[in-house]
Amino acid sequence: MPQKQVTPTRMELTRLKKRLMTARRGHKLLKDKRDELMKIFLDTVREDKALRKRIEERMQLLHSGFNLAAAVTSREIMEEALVYPKSEGELSVSYKNVMSVVVPEYSYEVKTNGGESPYGYGFAFTSGELDNAVGELYDMLPDLMRLAEVEKQSQMLADEIEKTRRRVNALEYIMIPGFEENIKAIIMKLDENDRGNTTRLMKVKDMMIEEQRKQNNMR
Prior knowledge:
The protein is mostly helical.
């Protein structure tokens, strides 16, 4: 990296040392944040994987259940039972802070009219297979909501980890080495100036001693 031109003064040296100290402290804090984010991210990914596997297995069974219901129930009855639901759901979103990342939390509530069954239809003309399939789908809602949460959280954590990683690398490989090089250059320049001043003072002293010696000889 090309060295930045700086003014070789003690004031500038003090300023750069303070900035270097701040950069090192920020680098450590960002590394700790990155490591903690990685830990949370891995836990979230593991939960996501387990949820997705469980939901996929249940969806396969659910699909088989609806196919079986379609085989034993007329198309008209299934359409009448499923197309016009008598209940509705309300989705609510809240937020929580995870290591400076604001992630959503989902909750839902199924509202029924007049205390009717959440199935949305009566059981007089439907088959048990259809009832079981609809009930299984209803029971899957908590897992589906949680899966949506953890997948969104995983995405947001991954983005924050990448941002933090770039900042850590910028401090570690650009800013901190740059400060160190500039501090080293200023110290070398100040030492050179000090040596030059010392040489000049010694020369002036020698000249003064020689002048004093000549005056003494003239007497």
